[in-house]
Fold this protein.
Amino acid sequence: MKSITVTKNDADQRLDRFLQKTFATLPKSMMFKQIRKKNIKVNRKRCTPEQILKEGDVIDLYLNDDLLTQKAVHYDFLKAPKGLDIVYEDDNVILLNKPQGMLCHPDGREYVNTLLSALKRYLFDKGGYNPDSENSFAPALANRIDRNTAGIVIGAKNAAALRVLTDKIKKREVGKFYLTIAHGTFDKPADTLTAYLTKDERKNMVKVLNAPSDGAKRIETKYRVLDTTGDYSLLEIELLTGRTHQIRAQLAAIGHPLLGDGKYGKTHGRYRQELCSYRVKFDFSGDSGCLDYLAGREFKLADCGVLTKFEELNSGR
């Protein structure tokens, strides 16, 4: 028999989802069966898989120990680099300026030198995150940007904040704005581009289509020309949908690839596109839970490398 007390970061989620996150050796079918047989109870009462947990609830599991092996907590994040560039931070969220060349999340080759690992180490070092006291939550990134795109990424320090951010991003109530330099000059000073995108997972590349197709996802990208110099344009991009390589591929598809983009542009072999997530706006409507205080607030990078590069291009004319 094992008892677990629900913490603040475990609350407001379904019982079945909590158990699946917590116990590595508890099969899903077995979990449902044991709930039906009343071998899993909440506050000593019969429960259901979809029951929403509250802080302080006590889950009793009358099961063999071999079914209750908790998922191992790995501390690889302690090897992550220090020195985060923090744009904004409070008790719930943290906005980070990710450098160009760093992954947001681990991939098949890199597990340590990522923004997520660096965030976990930062919070661990300051006492804001202790894996030993968490059953199912770890600090998370609410959005991501490409490895060679720089700029603002939003981190959640607790489960409640992550739920609100995930919901608001899905509802397009978090404005994400980018600065970029594109090849060529634009006929329209501003426009909203719509198309459809498919992804080749093996090649990690996407293709932009003008019409719907099986498996293709609709994409929308709004641009505004801020300045031009020679054969280059400085753009502000508002990302209305967030698909893989969306900005890079969609601008390339209309004949304006990003400067330095070797995958979709003209600089073959170089993957340092001039693209920066420089501004976010919390354009919340309705209830925002623990993040109500962020409604209407906007955060912007004080310094952006894209602007520096454009000034260099302009001065070199």
User: Anything to note?
Assistant: The first helix runs from residue 15 to 22. The CA atoms of residues 34 and 40 lie 6 Å apart. The longest strand covers residues 217-229.
